Request: fold
Amino acid sequence: MKSRTTATYSANHGIELAPAGIESCEPRLALSASMMGAWLAPLADPFSDPLTDQAVDLQPEFSAPCPADAYAVGHDAGGSALPVSTADFPLSIAPAVLTPNTYGSTLNDLDQAFAQSALNGADGSGSSLMEQSARIGASSGFDGAGQTIAVIDSGIAYDHHAFGSGYGTGTRVVGGWDFAENDADPYDDAPAGYHGSHVAGLASGVATTLDGDTFRGVAPGADIVALRVFDDAGAGNLAWIEQALRWVHDNQDAFESPITTVNLSLGTELNDSNRDGAMAMLEDELQMLYEDDILVFAAAGNSQATLDPASDDLMYPASSQWVSAVGSVDTNGNLSGFSQREEGIFAGEGQQLTSAVPEHVRGYDGYVNDYASLSGTSMASPQVAAASMLVRQAMQAAGIEATSESILERLESTSVTHTDSSTGLTYRTLDIEAAVDFGDLAGGGGNEGEPDGGGSTVETPTTIDGYTSGNDSDELVLDLRDLITNSGSQIDGDVWLSDEAGRYLLDAGTTSTASNPIVIDAGAGGDTIEILGSTGSEQLTLRPSSGANGGHSLLTFPGGVIELRGFENVSFVSGGGQDRVTMYDSDGDDVLRSNEHSAQFSGRGFDFQLEGVNKLYVYATSGGNDTAHLSDSVHDDQLVIRPQFSSMRGGDQFQAAFGFERVFAYAEAGGHDTADLGDSSVNDVMSIAQTRSLISGVGYRASASGFEDVVATASRGGEDTVRIYVDSPDGSWHTSESLTQWTGADGTSRIARGFERSEAFEQFETVPVGASALAAQAIVPQSQTLANESTVPMRSLDDLKRDADDHLRGLRQLFEAYE
Reply:
């Protein structure tokens, strides 16, 4: 462990959201893996052999033009501004190593994302951090829950499936800030963004593929905070990072789960000429977080082969005494040729790691499920950071005080020490299974299960390792409620299966996996199973008897995996954990009805019912004419409707519907709810009224009823039309050539952007919008024209008739009945 001493760089300065003197072309902070952006992809893999550590020529550096007098602003000991010239910080965007091995252009491509060897250990040892964490999650339930990791990077594509497709309270990405644009939307934007999403996925992402495989970061139960310190072009500066570190300190307890960990997969080379200036900016914040018991991990850097002899061995801030530096190893456990290194450094897998990237990397197809393979110490750092969260969780469960020092000591004392053959330096790879094992301290010990030596005997239940029925119609109950009992997070109970003949103890063990599950086969007949969830987190994938992988459903729970075969009727009752259910349709006409508390998905030959599930994903991609009904919660909900995709989020609830031909969304339970409507690539028609909005196009139709705010956007192509209907005269209009907006006196709004044709009506009178409004230089309801005829030109009888006909057509479309 590094010697921790009091820093001498405790500059006295504050934080401003928009620091004076910072320009968009400030000195670049180099990401430790990649930040080139989709407009440069596909690029060559930096390795001739993915399992060797031989570095080859990387892509040329990218440097956007910048003013010669750009400054990174620091402060001296007295708090005065200290300009640091660009010559002192030769920062540039690191050579990109995004490989052309990207996935996820369609839903069916999603499964390919998990075929690469680096994810699970090519040597078959299963010693990768992600593989270790998966075993830990199955055996002990430790997954980082109850904590939040702050990812200081290029932002996060929080709408990605791996992050739960949302942002804010009740979602996986619970909050953050964009220091590059000074707003609360830290999205990983094009053209240069994707690095932060990839990093966050390795730390805490989780997603289920169509065939039941799982992409899983090291701490998938942890929440995430996104702090964006790079702009759209990939430019960043130390001042933004300083602000982000201060933000973590100020907001460490602002979320349901406290921020315990920070990842910095970024850095710059320091030498004698610039070291003091850079450290004067960041060292006091880094020390402050360490003393807050918030661990900071940073990528060591990728420039070992080309490192300037006058520069420090590690990039900064990885070289800080308050930060744990992380290098990269290949799947054989050898230091990667590109990885910078120092004595005793932590190291994790960093070559060809697959993780989440924003949709712009592959092109927009409406499914935010894209993955790509990246290499670098940037990929290793978030895994080690997330591993520390598992150790913290295990220490807390064992009643051990979890401080910055004690967690690092635990990581080091249980790690495996290696010697680098090229430099003779030692480095450490983590054995997190050993690090989280505190023996009897975690389980409480005791002899509760031993006989008392007297009294009556207890009949030993029959233990089974699977279940097979015949052609009868079975009714089974799978009970996980006793799985997690006294310890709260430890698996210390049993799983029970009941049928008409009796109750059986199911030998879940620790060996059942997605590839080798326990099988419960109902055989033929009309079969029913009720699943009672544990207090831990379950993942359930349900498929009807027809369609892809028909009749094979999968339940992943703390301690094992069960495959359900041949059940036509399945019900699941959550036990209170962070449960996620994915359901697939049949090839017939299916109907989904979902709300805050329950959901039902039914069709020809199947009926699935859920209670208390807070994450729901439903796919209607097997055929038929499918309908989804989504209802809001009592919280402020956000509805997103796109052709073939809709989602509703509120509180800790999330509902997503893919591929449905008809979608009806309702905001009736309370809160201030927002609907976001988007177009397709062909001609679409949207109608927005104060009570109900509608979007229709080729092969689909969706409506949103009762939402206070509605935003409609046409950006994907086609000749699109929008009509806005307003009943209340107590509001104001704003218009431009591509924007029409109405804001009511009650704070509600109706906004339309990018439509080729826009029409507006207030109390059945036409309101000029677009070009006509600009020509009139005002937005004035028709009822006011007599008072001010010079503002709106007089219209002919033909004009009035044409407007009335168009208005009636819009009303018919908006209010026509549906089944």
User: Anything to note?
Assistant: The longest strand covers residues 148-153. The chain has three domains: 30-435, 463-578, 672-819. The first helix runs from residue 129 to 140. The two ends are 67 Å apart (CA to CA).
